[in-house]
Task: structure prediction
Amino acid sequence: MIPFNKPHLTGKETDYIKEVFASGKISGDGNFTKRCHQFLQQKYNFKKVLLTTSCTDALEACAILLDIKEGDEVIVPSYTFVSTVNAFVLRGAKIIFADSNPDTANIDVSKIESLITSRTKAIVPVHYAGVACDMDSINAIAAKHNLYVVEDSAQAIDSFYKGKPLGSLGHLSAFSFHDTKNIISGEGGMLVINDEHFEKRAEIIREKGTNRSAFFRGEVDKYGWVDVGSSFLPSEVTAAMLLAQLESIDKIQTRRKEIWNRYYSLLKSLEEKEFLKLPVIPDYATNNAHMFFIVLNNLETRSKLIDHLKRNNISAVFHYISLHASAYYVSKHDGRALPVSDMLTNQLLRLPMFYDLKNDEVDFICQKITDFFTTL
Ligand SMILES: *Cc1c(COP(=O)(O)O)cnc(C)c1O
Result:
């Protein structure tokens, strides 16, 4: 079976983890965490980053930092992962779902402004498949209406918008290092703080509401409970694994892009024959090869193609189910139809995409897809 995902290890992870055990400092914010922070701040020019135990945690920290309260409204695409909205729902926010673009599966920027009310606090764009949302337009709308922008950059490591790294464009941003992402630490994430007035409080929220980080820097002579917070910092074991991965990021990205480009060129003729649509990378965006998806013409075709690939030992999987129609939120949604989100729910299919995928496996997958449309 060709799996949909297979976590890639660089080989250095175990060496670094052994160093952690030898050092006797296993809890968080030690040497490896510092080295990850430095690496990420230098490579991507992020002003301030904090490792977290997941992207979900980083998003929860964002909702606390923005003081999201009962009755506040947050604009989020319906076609996303639950954590994007759960973080804000936990603080009492009402989610105002936006529709998506059919070609990138990113939030449809033209739909945002009509959703803004006097209660709107934030816009949360998601860089789907690691391809940038139209951030200049989103930031202009946010500035005009005095709103915060939180980028869900879970899939967006090493990807850019007009030359600027994703995650550096909103007030705050959240990344994931879950096994399914390009760079992994099992579970893991990162909060990026671009608006410096959030910096101090972000450290406090991540440290159970205490000013422990400032204490260890010698800025205060004792530490205590100063705000709300949680335990969002990962252990050094997680940071050690992450550093090993980060040190191989250029190699990992080069191979993933080769795989992505191979899929694209092998499937192009099927798009020309209108059997399927391939992802679109807008001029302002780069492609970090997080995902390779195709969009089929209808749900029935997608189901049959999934079965056909399964019979050929290939695991291809659909993705999100529109959150506005979810069991938890359907009764809270304002009832607006979100046709593109529903179309993507039914018609988008993700193909196997991981560093160790071989060229002949990509060729085999594309051959089986071609057979499905042309010989069956
Ligand atoms: C993976 C993902 C998350 C959650 O990341 P975790 O690190 O597993 O919490 C959130 N949003 C999006 C868009 C994701 O793809």
Observations:
- The pocket of pyridoxal-5'-phosphate is lined by residues 54-56, 80-81, 83-84, 126, 152, 154-155, 176, 178, 189 (CB under 6 Å).
- The chain has two domains: 13-246, 249-374.
- The chain has a mean pLDDT of 97.
